[in-house]
Design a protein that fits this description.
Blueprint: H1 13-27, H2 31-37, E1 53-59, E2 69-75, E3 80-85
Antiparallel strand pairs: 1-2, 2-3
Length: about 100
């Protein structure tokens, strides 16, 4: 069951929420700060400045006519990564969306 304000998510609510969450998490702070918080090494340019996320765009399919969703990340070093949210199994019971 969906609240009226969440009708646009339809039957793909799980995928679209995860997709938006990944994009938000990876752009909520500088990449070097996120790496620090996760106790990971930082990506740096030749001059020692940190590599940053310059763009995070969501996409509705993986470009291969699937229903997968994902996030394209463009980094300041020119690299581009696609993170795909793939459906492995749907919930067995009805799920209700609500906003806090």
């Amino acid at each position: 069951m969906l609240d009226n304000s969440d009708d646009e998510l339809g039957e793909y609510a799980h995928e679209e929420i995860l997709q938006a969450l990944v994009a938000r998490l990876l752009t909520s702070a500088d990449l070097d700060q996120l790496c620090d918080e996760a106790d990971l090494p930082q990506l740096t340019h030749d001059d020692g400045t940190p590599v940053t996320v310059t763009s995070a765009r969501v996409y509705r399919d993986a470009g291969v006519l699937t229903l997968d969703r994902g996030v394209w990340l463009e980094l300041s070093d020119g690299s581009v990564f696609g993170l795909t949210v793939t459906i492995a199994r749907r919930p067995r019971d009805e799920v209700t969306l609500r906003r806090r």
